[in-house]
Amino acid sequence: MTSVECNFYEKCSAPICPMEPDKTNNHYPWYPDEEICRKRKDLPAWVKQQRKIAKKAKPENLGYYFTLEMLKIPFRVTNQVKGLDPDKFLKDEPKQLKQWLKTHKGVTSRKAA
C-alpha cells in the first residue's frame, strides 16, 4: 500500500488496516483502546463498528479483544460491550468465539417507531 491511497498510512499504527489484506485476517485481535484506521472515506462497516466500541466501552472492558470476524457482524454497541478474554485465548478461544457470535448475531439497533 502507498501513501497515495491513504494520507495517514505512514503515521498510522492501527493493528487492523483495511488497506492491507494481510492485516485483515479474521482472527487478528483488536482491543478497544488500540488505534483505529483514521481514513474517512470508503471504509468497511467493521471500522465504523470499531469506532462505536472504542467510544462506548467501559474501562474495565478495554482488556477484552475483538476479532475481525466479530467486528463484521452488525450488532448493537452499548457501554456493556465486551470482547473475548485474552487469558483464555489458547485454552478455549473457539468456544468463547462461538458463544459470543451466538449472543450477538442479529442483535441490531432498534428502529424508531
Describe this structure in words.
The structure is a single chain. The chain is mainly α and 113 residues long. It has one domain (21-104). It is built from 3 helices and 2 strands. The protein has helices at 45-56, 68-71, 89-104, and strands at residues 29-30, 66-67. It has a two-stranded antiparallel sheet with strand order 1-2. The longest helix is centred in the last third of the chain and has 16 residues, at 89-104. The termini are far apart. The mean pLDDT is 82.
Q: Percent of residues in helical segments? A: 25-40%
Strand order of the largest sheet: 1-2
Class per helix and strand makeup: mainly alpha
CA gyration radius, whole angstroms: 15 Å
Low-confidence sequence ranges: none
Estimate nothing, just give the exact number of structural domains.
1
The proportion of strand residues reads under 5%
String of helices and strands: EHEHH
Annotation, overall tally of beta strands? 2
Which of globular, elongated, flat, extended, rod-shaped describes the shape? Answer: globular
Whole-number mean pLDDT: 82
Number of helices: 3
Task: For the record, give the distance between the C-alpha atoms at the N and C termini, rounded to a whole number.
Answer: 44 Å
Largest sheet: 2 strands, antiparallel
